[in-house]
Design goal:
Layout (H helix, E strand, L loop, with lengths): L1 E2 L9 E3 L4 E4 L9 E5 L2 H9 L6 H18 L5 H16 L6 H16 L3 H31 L7 E3 L15 H10 L5 E5 L6 H12 L3 E5 L4 H6 L5 E4 L3 E3 L4 E4 L2 H10 L4 E3 L6 E2 L15 H4 E2 L2 E2 L12 E4 L6 E4 L2 E4 L2 H8 L2
Parallel strand pairs: 5-6, 5-8, 6-7, 8-11, 9-12
Antiparallel strand pairs: 1-4, 2-3, 3-4, 9-10, 10-15, 13-14, 16-17
Bound molecules: 5-S-methyl-1-O-phosphono-5-thio-D-ribulose.
The site of 5-S-methyl-1-O-phosphono-5-thio-D-ribulose has 17 residues, from α2 and β10.
């Protein structure tokens, strides 16, 4: 494993010639390390074990995994290479079910390969496609960041959830992209970061990212969310999303729904922020699978057992917030105002 000093010049996920290079998020914040993969199965494993996580980041990583399958295929005919690509695509699709970006990324590269007339052109086309997706991700986050920054006032304290930052995307971030853009527009923003049990993306990743970027931020336990909102110290809530369905429901990290309910109770605006690749215009909320992760995440904290052996455990990784709790959705296609259930399909095409 390679150790690198500079966090800012390199991306969370990047195409590195004939390999995919990514920050290993399982060892943050203790160590900033990068991993390189040349096989689709390795990328699938990295997604499953959350070496790479966050909806836009896994979308691009999975797409790159499919591209690797085209490069590794020994097929000499178009049918043969497509069979290898479809096999890798199926494996990558099976890694995590909730974030739609993953399916969007895989499908886009499979379509690109299908369109190419020869195996050589298919290989070239998938490589250019994933490079384009990498660039588009950062550009979309910057665009939505600018749009969302308009909602933030100078001096605001913003609560977020999980990590919807540079680490959850190729770069810049969605919810944290909004916060970054507000700061770039000259506003002072303070960030309240819930720890986000069980995988602790808030405590480990958002805290790391914000501190590295010199933000005024404060970590709180998940159980302090209601208290903070009830005390009037939070001006806005800005979160990411893993899937936004055609009926305006927002699927995001477990705990988001309770934040949305409490935000409404205390009249704090609640804004999910997501690029177009997070919108699923084909499904309504009842058709989405919520990932159930391993019980070990709940009975242990970072490998240390805290609950008695034999205790039955539930570990849903995401929850769904209904549109009536959403003030507006920030997207790179524009602001989706209330009623979001109706406006999602108008703004996102
Ligand atoms: O399980 P994770 O860490 O992949 O979940 C990530 C989240 O829920 C993020 O909030 C979401 O992907 C938005 S990322 C810009």
């Amino acid at each position: 494993m390679e150790q690198l000093e500079d966090f800012f010049t390199l991306r969370t996920v990047t195409w590195a010639g004939r390999s995919v290079r990514m920050i290993d998020q399982t060892v943050l914040p203790r160590r900033l390390a990068y991993r390189s993969y040349t096989k689709p199965a390795e990328v699938a494993e990295a997604i499953k074990t959350m070496v790479v996580r966050g909806a836009p980041a896994i979308g691009v990583a999975a797409a790159m995994g499919v591209a690797l399958s085209a490069l590794e295929s020994r097929a000499t005919g178009k049918e043969g290479i497509m069979a290898d690509i479809e096999k890798a695509a199926a494996l990558l699709r099976s890694t995590r079910p909730t974030a739609v970006n993953l399916f969007w990324g895989v499908d886009r590269v499979v379509r690109t390969a299908r369109r190419a007339p020869t195996t050589r052109e298919a290989r070239e086309a998938v490589v250019s496609e994933v490079k384009a997706m990498e660039e588009e991700d950062v550009a979309a986050n910057r665009r939505l960041g600018k749009i969302g920054a308009e909602l933030i006032d100078d001096g605001d304290t913003v609560m977020t959830q999980c990590n919807a930052g540079a680490l959850a995307t190729v770069g810049y971030g969605t919810a944290l992209g909004v916060i970054r853009a507000a700061r770039e527009a000259g506003k002072f923003v303070k960030v309240l970061v819930p720890e986000t049990r069980p995988a602790l993306q808030g405590a480990r990743l958002t805290a790391f990212e914000l501190l590295r970027d010199g933000f005024d931020c404060r970590l709180i336990s998940d159980t302090a969310v209601g208290y903070a909102l009830s005390r009037g110290v939070v001006d806005k809530v800005v979160v990411g999303a893993d899937r936004i369905t055609r009926d305006g429901w927002v699927f995001n990290k477990i705990g988001t729904y309770q934040i949305a309910v409490l935000a409404r109770r205390h009249r704090v605006p609640f804004y999910p922020a997501a690029p177009r690749s997070t919108f699923d215009l084909e499904r309504t909320h009842g058709q989405v699978t919520i990932e159930e992760r391993n019980a070990s995440e709940v009975v242990s904290i970072r490998g240390r057992r805290i609950a008695p052996r034999g205790i039955p455990v539930g570990n849903p990784a995401f929850d769904a917030t209904p549109p009536e709790l959403v003030t507006a959705i920030v997207s790179d296609a524009g602001l989706i105002r209330s009623p979001v259930a109706k406006n999602v399909r108008r703004v996102i095409s």
